[in-house]
């Protein structure tokens, strides 16, 4: 297993394009990384997704009346999908926090 790949930082500017890779990396971390590293990865992923969602919401709001209806609908889909991923990150962090051994 390539530990460097598992530990690769989340790049906020690329979070949407690399979301599938992030989930693949997460699925493999359990056997190779310490729980604290996994939580830190999820926190970084959550921060990046939060920034992406807020940026897209601002973009759509700032272009009301300019964007065509289909464009708005497509952007709203993207926002909803990434918001769902952000909620999953928060849920995963909570679940892992509940199952991690006490220090």
Description:
The protein has 103 residues and is mainly alpha-helical. The protein has one domain (3-98). The chain is built from four helices and no strands. The chain has helices at residues 3-6, 19-29, 35-62, 69-99. The radius of gyration is 16 Å and the shape is elongated.
Tell how many strands the DSSP assignment holds.
0
Order of helices and strands: HHHH
The oligomeric status of these chains comes to single chain
Q: How many helical elements?
A: 4
Structural class of the helix and strand makeup?
mainly alpha
- Which whole number gives the mean pLDDT? 94
Distance between the amino and carboxyl termini: 27 Å
Low-confidence stretches: none
Q: How much helical structure, as a percent, in the residues?
A: over 70%
Shape: elongated
Percent strand equals under 5%
Radius of gyration, in Å, reads 16 Å
Compute the number of structural domains.
Answer: 1
Largest sheet: none
Task: Give keywords.
103 residues, mainly alpha, 4 helices, 0% strand, elongated
Short structural summary:
The protein has helices spanning 3-6, 19-29, 35-62, 69-99. It contains four helices and no strands.
